[in-house]
Amino acid sequence: MTRIGVVTFPGTLDDRDAARAVRLAGGEPVALWHADADLRGVDAVVLPGGFSYGDYLRAGAISRFAPVMGEVVEAAGKGMPVLGICNGFQVLTEAHLLPGSMIKNDHLHFVCREQVLSVESTDTAWTGEYAAGERITIPLKNQDGQYVADESTLDELEGEGRVVFRYEDTNPNGSRRGIAGISNAKGNVVGLMPHPEHAVEAGFGPDGARGPRSGTDGLRFFTSVMRSLVS
Ligand SMILES: NC(=O)CC[C@H](N)C(=O)O
């Protein structure tokens, strides 16, 4: 069975939902602690959402120095799939596994909504089971969700097909070019602000009466990575 590590930092709050998403997708979740010095032989890693180290200094800025992150950076460099969700995305930018930064939402308020995204790239370890251009609805909840990078970095991301998700219908936080998620050049590392792990079970995720898969648009992140590991 595919073993997917879920990292808990002090202040993480979505680790249990991430572990549950892994289980519902057919994988085995493995709890990793921020102070761990090894990844316990996992096949992939999820950095979940929350307020690691209280978002002090800057969201993700302290977590980046946690012992487990040294292992995650090394494994990611060797091609291990890594997914950063919300605070996890913030950690990935702070750790320089992904370019750019997350700053306060442009309206300066916390945002909590069901967010429509377009899947712009299916060429990553975490999105292979989506259709290019597909619209999905998953929850978004954060205060530091505005993705920023300089123009040349944004052009490079667009040119290399590394914009993985874009906000649809509305830009909820002022992110440059409506970017909701990006990948590294190899496509094994993906970060996004909205939360796929909160939309994995019918009746609990965003509903919207959109048919039989309603509320489960996030599940294919986790089935995609398992498929990418066996193929
Ligand atoms: N949901 C989350 O992971 C929150 C992320 C981060 N602490 C923020 O508020 O921006």
Automatic annotation (TrEMBL):
Q: What is its EC number?
A: 6.3.5.3, 3.5.1.2
Q: Which GO terms describe its molecular function?
A: ATP binding; glutaminase activity; phosphoribosylformylglycinamidine synthase activity
Instruction: Provide the active-site residues from the annotation.
Output: 86 (nucleophile), 195, 197
A GO term (biological process) for this protein? 'de novo' IMP biosynthetic process
What Gene3D superfamilies does this protein's entry cite? 3.40.50.880
The keyword Nucleotide-binding is annotated on this UniProt entry: yes
Q: Which reaction does it catalyse?
A: L-glutamine + H2O = L-glutamate + NH4(+); N(2)-formyl-N(1)-(5-phospho-beta-D-ribosyl)glycinamide + L-glutamine + ATP + H2O = 2-formamido-N(1)-(5-O-phospho-beta-D-ribosyl)acetamidine + L-glutamate + ADP + phosphate + H(+)
Give the pathway: Purine metabolism; IMP biosynthesis via de novo pathway; 5-amino-1-(5-phospho-D-ribosyl)imidazole from N(2)-formyl-N(1)-(5-phospho-D-ribosyl)glycinamide: step 1/2
Q: Which GO terms describe its cellular component?
A: cytoplasm
Question: Where is the protein localized?
Answer: Cytoplasm
Question: What are the protein's UniProt keywords?
Answer: ATP-binding, Cytoplasm, Glutamine amidotransferase, Hydrolase, Ligase, Nucleotide-binding, Purine biosynthesis
Annotated InterPro entries = Class_I_gatase-like, PRibForGlyAmidine_synth_PurQ
One Pfam family, please name it: GATase_5
Protein purpose: Part of the phosphoribosylformylglycinamidine synthase complex involved in the purines biosynthetic pathway. Catalyzes the ATP-dependent conversion of formylglycinamide ribonucleotide (FGAR) and glutamine to yield formylglycinamidine ribonucleotide (FGAM) and glutamate. The FGAM synthase complex is composed of three subunits. PurQ produces an ammonia molecule by converting glutamine to glutamate. PurL transfers the ammonia molecule to FGAR to form FGAM in an ATP-dependent manner.
Q: How does it assemble?
A: Part of the FGAM synthase complex composed of 1 PurL, 1 PurQ and 2 PurS subunits.
The record's annotation in PANTHER family points to:
PHOSPHORIBOSYLFORMYLGLYCINAMIDINE SYNTHASE SUBUNIT PURQ
Q: What is this protein called?
A: Phosphoribosylformylglycinamidine synthase subunit PurQ
The top of its lineage is:
Bacteria, Bacillati, Actinomycetota, Actinomycetes, Micrococcales
